[in-house]
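Researcher: Let's do a round of design. I'm pasting the structure tokens now; please hold your answer until I've finished.
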């Protein structure tokens, strides 16, 4: 039987999954991927093969059988049945784990001790970490001999210099873990690994990667190493996102608490679910809907989204000591020529010259030859990054 690796990305209301084979080759092959959405309300399961064709779909009943743990068990059984049909042996499961705390700078094989350590970071990421870890625990309970690897969204940024990671707060708070971590690390790491293949010279330079999806952040890479990120203590900091505000004066939170008498839970709900593009526009968190809308508030939401990216490009350029390249990735970055154009317009002072036709076609290189900054579109692949890490941790680096 040839080996395969499964990837699980477990969130508060969804579980995404995939399976890769050809694990002895540098780039593994996607066999299937899918997700269970609407956990807690009306869970729906959908799986597609490596070419994107739907291979299975079902709706779960609401009630006891729609909880996270039960759905995870069903999913593991479904994956097992499929891979046995295909004659594949499971070598391990890789998990996206949002928080690796101050010290985990690389993926790690999970045992009871590691799991206990990762549980300490639940307070740092209460909306994501519990779900990430509960999937690991469910698999441990179902079948303790399956090897599991935790891949962290924070790990890639542990190379940031101390001054980029420390808040100007009393030092004891920093020692207890109140510091800047940065997120989307698996996406940035994938881009950092892909760049030398696509643009070897640029890979040795100073690059800003703009991960513009539902979650939005940017990262400064110097020779492929993260030196700064727009996200900080939580995945709420930095840029305007679908439903999160990004950078916010802490005085606003005090105002909500003290003057508006809002509770912690109400503020968390406001900042995680009702702000960002949705909050400004009052229409949608989906960039496609806003781009198609004539509503002035939709236009204003996009305006603010782009303005803040422009300002942070300046900040990251300063942290990098100059700039050689700008890379767009994730849903909006990969698919919206209009947003790419507008971001390049606000950053034109850097000497960016966009090739509008190449941008419209979504080519890999979208800047003109004379542009001082190379601008590229590189699709991210966090699942493949997790599968690669899992393979490397469990089997050693098997590629030659
Ligand atoms: P997630 O962070 O959940 O992985 P994605 O990276 O898939 O999200 O990005 C989702 C975002 O990408 C949504 O705001 C969606 O509107 C946007 N998006 C996807 N396709 C397009 C498109 N063609 N034009 C503009 N925005 C798009």
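Researcher: That's everything. Go ahead.
Model: Designed sequence:
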């Amino acid at each position: 039987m040839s080996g395969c690796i499964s990837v699980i990305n477990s969130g508060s209301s969804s579980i995404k999954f995939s399976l890769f084979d050809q694990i002895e080759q540098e780039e593994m092959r996607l066999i299937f991927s899918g997700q269970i959405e609407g956990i807690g309300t009306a869970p729906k399961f959908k799986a597609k093969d490596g070419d994107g064709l739907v291979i299975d779909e079902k709706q779960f009943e609401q009630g006891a059988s729609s909880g996270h743990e039960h759905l995870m068990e069903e999913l593991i059984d479904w994956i097992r049945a499929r891979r046995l049909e295909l004659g594949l042996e499971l070598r391990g499961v890789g998990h996206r784990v949002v928080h690796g705390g101050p010290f985990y700078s690389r993926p790690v094989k999970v045992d009871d001790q590691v799991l206990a350590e990762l549980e300490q970071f639940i307070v740092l990421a209460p909306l994501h970490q519990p779900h990430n870890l509960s999937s690991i625990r469910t698999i441990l309970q179902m079948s303790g001999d399956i090897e599991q690897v935790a891949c962290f969204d924070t790990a890639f940024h542990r190379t940031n210099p101390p001054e980029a990671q420390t808040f100007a707060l009393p030092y004891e708070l920093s020692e207890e873990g109140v510091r800047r971590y940065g997120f989307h690390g698996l996406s940035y790491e994938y881009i950092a690994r892909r760049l030398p293949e696509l643009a070897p010279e640029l890979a040795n330079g100073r690059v800003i990667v703009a991960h513009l999806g539902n979650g939005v952040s940017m990262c400064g890479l110097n020779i492929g190493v993260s030196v700064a990120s727009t996200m900080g203590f939580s995945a709420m900091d930095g840029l305007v996102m679908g439903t999160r505000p990004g950078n916010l004066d802490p005085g606003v939170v005090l105002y909500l608490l003290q003057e508006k008498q809002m509770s912690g839970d109400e503020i968390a709900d406001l900042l995680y679910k009702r702000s960002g593009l949705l909050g400004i526009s009052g229409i949608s968190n989906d960039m496609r809907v806003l781009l198609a809308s004539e509503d002035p508030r939709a236009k204003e939401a996009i305006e603010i989204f782009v303005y803040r990216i422009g300002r942070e490009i300046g900040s990251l350029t300063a942290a990098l000591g100059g700039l050689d390249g700008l890379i767009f990735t994730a849903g909006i970055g990969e698919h919206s020529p209009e947003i790419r154009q507008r971001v390049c317009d606000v950053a034109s002072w850097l000497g960016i010259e966009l090739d509008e036709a190449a941008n419209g076609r979504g080519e890999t290189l979208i800047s003109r030859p004379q542009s001082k900054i190379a601008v590229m579109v590189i699709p991210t692949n966090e699942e493949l990054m997790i599968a690669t890490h899992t393979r490397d941790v469990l089997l050693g680096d098997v590629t030659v």
